[in-house]
Amino acid sequence: MSNPKKRRSYDASRRQQRALETRERVIEIARTLFAERGYAETTMNAIASEAGVALPTLFAMFQSKRGVLAGVINRLVSGQRGAPPILQTPGARAMLAEPDARRAVALFAADLTQVLARVGPIYEVMKNAARTEADVAELFARAQQFRFQ
Description:
- By secondary structure, this protein is mostly helical.
- Helix content is 72%, strand content 0%.
């Protein structure tokens, strides 16, 4: 019987880090293009080209232009790399951990002000696109519902 060779475990951390960096670059490029050109005038080809990724890679990451827009919105709402849910961001955690109600409201207001400043320009792009794009209208309606909650 032969000695089985020990296999090294696969460490995908570098690959995952590169994928996150690529996603962040795509989101930033898409944010800029959407803000400059509008939703309808920004193509998936333009986003892929500007971000330096292949078009199939862009579709694999986001599935559609609406998916790219949703990724941009999620990233801007969270303000954090990887776009964690808003309640997992530092501002929200600080507000939730604050025992003093007045201080918690002040922290909430400060955090929300920052979120709105980041999201505002793209929110307008989404609102305008929702008038003619059914899939974006659904995304906009969900964003509005989340905002009002």
